[in-house]
Amino acid sequence: MTRYIVGRIVQAVAVLWAAFTLTFAILYLLPSDPMELQLAAAGVQEDSLTPDQLAAMKQRFGLDQSIWAQYWHHLTGVLHGDFGTSLSQQVPVSDLLTARIGGTLTLSVSAALLSLVAGATLAYLATFARWNPLRVFLTRLPALGASFPQFFVALFLIQFFSFQLGWFPATGNEGAQSLVMPVVTISVLTSSVLAQVLIKSFDETLSQPYIATARAKGLSRSAVHLKHAFRNAALPAMTILGVLVGLTVTSSIVVETVFTREGVGKLAQESVLSQDVPVVLAVVTVAAAMFVLVNLVVDLLYPLLDPRISHTRGRVRPAPEVVTAT
Amino acid sequence: MSLVDIKGLDVGYVRHRKVQPAVIGLDLAVAPAEVVAIVGESGSGKTTTANAIIGLLPANGRITAGSAVVDGVETAGASERTLRRLRGSVVGLIPQDPMVGLNPTKRVGAQIAEAVRLRGGAPEEVFEHLAEAGVPDPELRARQYPHELSGGLRQRVLIAIALAGKPKLIIADEPTSALDVTVQKRILDHLGGLVREQGISLLIITHDLAVAADRADRIIVMQNGRKVEQGDPAAILGTPRERYTRQLIAAAPRLAHAGRVVPRFDVRGQEKPEPILELTDVSKTFAVSDLRRGARGFNALDKVSVTVPRGQTHALVGESGCGKTTTLRIALGLETATSGSVKLDGDEIVGRSWNRLRPLRRKAQLVHQDPFATLDPKFTIGQSITEPLVSFRIGNRKSRLERARELLDQVALPASYLDRLPSELSGGQRQRVAIARALALRPDLIMLDEPVSALDVLVQEQILQLLADLQAALGLSYLFVSHDLGVVAELAHTVSVMSHGKVVEQGPVAEVFTNPQSPYTQELIDAIPGRRVADAV
């Protein structure tokens, strides 16, 4: 078991490192000069500087070093929690992140929780319903939810609930009220994806022979659903939880922009537009870390939920049949 | 008064807004403490009848006419609530396949406890029911998960679940299909004893008339949804009225000859032909990693020597885990032997690399156990049959198609099946296709891995006849793996009985049947159903 856990953690760290390195390589290969961008942001023409001044500035940001030296510098910095200095805003990236990560985390976690509840409920109802038209409607619903673009859902919500009904504020991140519409916007997509996987898994589980055994015992339909089908149907869906949480983080880019919320998503959007390399690198690394963490937790929880997956022994051999005198 | 009283029952399945009848005008009664067997092949409506009695018809199943009264309660048109009161407490079910009949993520004890709790029993009763069902160490077993138990123990757990509801009737659906014959015989004997002791009625659903004859007080033969014949075993076997019943009798090795098993071939005293396949002192050790005891070896095979004579059939018989499948895989070159020699048509195959082994594969082909899994569901029958030819680059498109037609003809399927998909075929037809595919490369030897154990007895009989005909026409040799000595008697000339990785007995089938040397062989012979008839005659 320890070996399994250690193995999974090493794997998670390796994925994280790979994500960081790949992002670094892509950003480095971008056909633009970070120095020029930075000067433009400060309102200075590159031509107006002497070569000496330029060299001094490059040295200050470490841009005169070789790519390997820069990579090493960044990597060690990240390991110490130092993501460098933003090129466009001239403040440490870690300050930018800490100021904004709270809002995005609240948004992502709320959206993930709502998706879990909504997706599971929808899947449960869709497979439990006995009236066929309702069943068909509920089964088709997730496909509809997954096909609406998020900006459209966001604009629809703003139009209806803010402008017409005035229930929720259209923008900003003040108070719990402002959280409702962004969370709903993200959850429409993620809960639909989850519900689609769950419904399929439920249908498969309900056709298993052990469900007939459970019904033959005299258990009620809801007991069979909850006690026998639900957990087994949820197991395959667990594997997409990591993807779902990743989806809530990526969705925050669109949602924070549309609802003008301060957060990592909006930060990512702005820093990509201004090619602020250290910030983009930091945002990608943090997002990858969240994704890796969720997957790690799922991997570690899986054996607890499914007794068939055991990491204590090489393989399980069934106990021999014993003859008994009757 | 009857416990179950079915009158003029019609059951159908709704498909494309039309009701397709599955059971037509059935009359059936089960008295308290009576053992009744319904015999019929797949599609005869026997399982539908059982499901109607326990109120577990699938969502598209409808009772369209007649009545089915169970313990005084009308189930035709009854509400879910009414039916639920019958399930478990009046009618218990032992499902078909014990390997998948238990929830894999719940402990065995908890699954029995559910049934105990429903009738208001105390939690300790779980252990009583496990012990009743013949499970040793009930306290230990109750804490285990299904995957930690063997098939036989899982079957006993399912019996414990059925008993836990204290039902008046237990339905056993195909209790002989999924497990080894000896294990099944023990379990059925045990179940038979229990129901007689406790005065429970038993309804056995089976495709095997011999199984029914051994255990039932009364037999009902069903065909195409109708009851064709009924009576006590002696009457059914002694004076069968219907042609269908006579076919069923002819298909059961013991029933066909009034309780004796008469092997089809007797090669005693004849000279043995040259061997096509010769395994000499083959051993196989699998590494088993165990954290507590470290890496160990598990001897799957211990100095096994087996010869397949050219043009004849040699059978490997034994229970699951005895090493017969490992032997077959080594003979096919899919698994390498740890020591020993395997000669196919005079060529040593042990130690050959995959590429050097490949030309030899044309000489030996495999027919698999499960006809439903052996064919690629996306391949047409024609594609499946010609695939070996394509893979060895034999002929062109036209000649391959010609060969495929010829092969279908050899296995008695119409050429129009070339464009069909496996899902359109029955189990027996699929097995014919699998045989045609094995024949495509004109092999000398075909390895048959339990080729009929997933099929109904009548279909079994047809496939065995086909294999025998092909052997006579093409001079094929077979290495035939089976757990059922009854089937071996129908096809094999010589046999090796295996147990725990060793050959315990070997010789001509006729000799082994008339004069078994090891007690294990005797047990396998005893497990062939139809004994009660033998005792009665």
TrEMBL record, chain A:
Q: Please give the GO cellular component terms listed in this UniProt entry.
A: plasma membrane
Membrane topology is: Multi-pass membrane protein
Which InterPro entries would you find in this protein's record? BPD_transp_1_N, MetI-like, MetI-like_sf
List, alphabetically, the Pfam families matched.
BPD_transp_1 (PF00528), BPD_transp_1_N (PF19300)
Gene3D superfamilies, per the entry = MetI-like
Q: What keywords appear on the UniProt entry?
A: Cell membrane, Membrane, Transmembrane, Transmembrane helix, Transport
List the protein's name.
Peptide ABC transporter permease
Q: Which organism is it from?
A: Paractinoplanes tereljensis
Automatic annotation (TrEMBL), chain B:
Where in the numbering of this chain does the ABC transporter domain appear?
6-249, 277-525
UniProt keyword annotation of Membrane present: yes
Localization, UniProt: Cell membrane
Q: Which GO terms describe its cellular component?
A: plasma membrane
UniProt key word Thylakoid: no
Keyword list (alphabetical) reads:
ATP-binding, Cell membrane, Membrane, Nucleotide-binding, Transport
The membrane topology noted for this protein in its Swiss-Prot or TrEMBL record is: Peripheral membrane protein
Q: Which family does it belong to?
A: Belongs to the ABC transporter superfamily.
Spell out the protein name for this chain.
Answer: ABC transporter ATP-binding protein
Origin species, per record, is Paractinoplanes tereljensis
